[in-house]
Amino acid sequence: STQSTWGIKSGTSCDNRLMPSCRTWTAITVAVLCILFYQGCHDELERHQLLEMYPLGPQYIQCEWEGEPVMYYDTHADGSQSTTTTTPPTTPTNTLVLLHGTFASAHTWMPLVAALQRVVPEWRILCVDYPPFGLTGPRAHANYSLASLTSFVHNFVRHGPPAVQSFVVGGNSLGGSISMKLLEMYPEAVRGLIVFSGRAAVPSSGSTPWVLSLVSWFAPLVKTGFLPRLMFGPGLRSAYHNGDLATPEVADRYFNILRLRGVRLATLQRLEAFSRGEDAWPSAHTLSQATVPVQFIWGQSDTWIPTEHAHFIRKAANLRDDQLKFMEECGHVVHEECAAQVVDLVVDVLRDTLIPRANSK
Length: 361
Prior knowledge:
Elements: H1 19-40, H2 47-53, E1 60-65, E2 68-74, E3 95-99, H3 110-119, E4 124-129, H4 146-159, E5 167-172, H5 174-185, E6 190-196, H6 210-217, H7 219-222, H8 232-237, H9 248-257, H10 263-275, H11 284-288, E7 294-299, H12 307-317, E8 324-327, H13 334-337, H14 339-352
Parallel strand pairs: 3-4, 3-5, 5-6, 6-7, 7-8
Antiparallel strand pairs: 1-2, 2-4
């Protein structure tokens, strides 16, 4: 072989004729990777910036609980509360507490809240941003196990500013698991349970949603501030039956809320606890012994927690057929995508809690 003008022998992967093109493509590749990394590195945002970007009105309240900020939405708030403390309504009301899923915030409940207020305006609805998600953000103790999150919701709702001693609880995804765990750990506080898809301690072949795996795979980069916006489009679309509902504006909201100071690292800590199997998922036995109204609502097209898991729960918890409803053309965020279809099921549970009973089974 002969020495090329580029100092490399011909016959290698880039010969004399291709060498200029090879160097060009190498430079382009490096440039693209640098640009992608640069664009994937976004500054963290402060809470007040996100409140300006995604306002929910005076009902979206910031308060201090145990020395750290908490955000929650309260349909009975009148805007007179301070930013550091709140006062519960003077008239006792029936209360529904709604808990979002991983990456989400109170914003995800707004379609269902609007539908419910048209039918049962007398009910107080609380949408709690539990840590480390939403605009509440991370905690100093950095413990985001399922049991810890459940204790947080219980203590905040009952002993914090909302001051509600008993309530109906509903949740989606991780929020659904927390809702079931509340019934398991604090049965005296739960008057009714609504699960919009959620994991329990039953056998399931459902795999971890790929977007959660992707974040875990890129954990070392995420810890440096790398979080590419482009991953949120496809990831969010997979949570819906109708992917067109995952508009760029919705994806931007999910992405930007994850930019709240400290949330990216805290989210990794939550996902690492999940991947290590540290969560003690709610027991199906607890559900089978429930003496309060229980309703499961599942999107037929759910790919994050497939319907197979719902069938396992129904069998293990000995649920009646009418306690598990599958919604056609609905995905994982069934409460958001199909609010109009599920509102009647939710209202039935709310009204059922007002009927005295010895056992709901």
